[in-house]
Amino acid sequence: MNNLARKLERKKVYDTTEYQQQNQPQIKRKLRITSGEKFLYFSTVAGLVFASYLVISTFASIYIVNSEIHTLERSISAQVTNNEALQLQVTELSAPNRILHIATNELGMSLNDKNVKVVQN
């Protein structure tokens, strides 16, 4: 009888725990992402990618333009120094004494003051 009482007691405990487990409301957690959230995530990521593309392309174009500006400035400065050297040559070559020396010695001309005409600008 002792065994029979224990079996009934075990059955009673088993039935009550099974009953309690069945009657407890089960909470189902939904971890699904809705289609609206998917659209928001996708549009946010696409916007960030597009914005980063714009920033990078803008900086690249600015870098290219700056390098072109620097090359132009270097060529301008080289041309300015070349022009200054040529202007110095012009002033040296157009000296009146030099012209008179070339005319008398190399070309065989003579200076006649009666035939000299002065031209003014």
From TrEMBL:
One of its GO terms (biological process) is FtsZ-dependent cytokinesis. It is found in: Cell membrane. GO terms for cellular component: cell division site; plasma membrane. It is a single-pass type II membrane protein. The keyword Cell cycle applies. InterPro entries: Cell_div_FtsL, FtsL/DivIC. It holds the Pfam family DivIC. The keyword rRNA processing does not apply. Keywords: Cell cycle, Cell division, Cell membrane, Membrane, Transmembrane, Transmembrane helix. The chain crosses the membrane at residues 39-65. Essential cell division protein. NCBIfam families: ftsL_broad. Belongs to the FtsL family. This is Cell division protein FtsL.
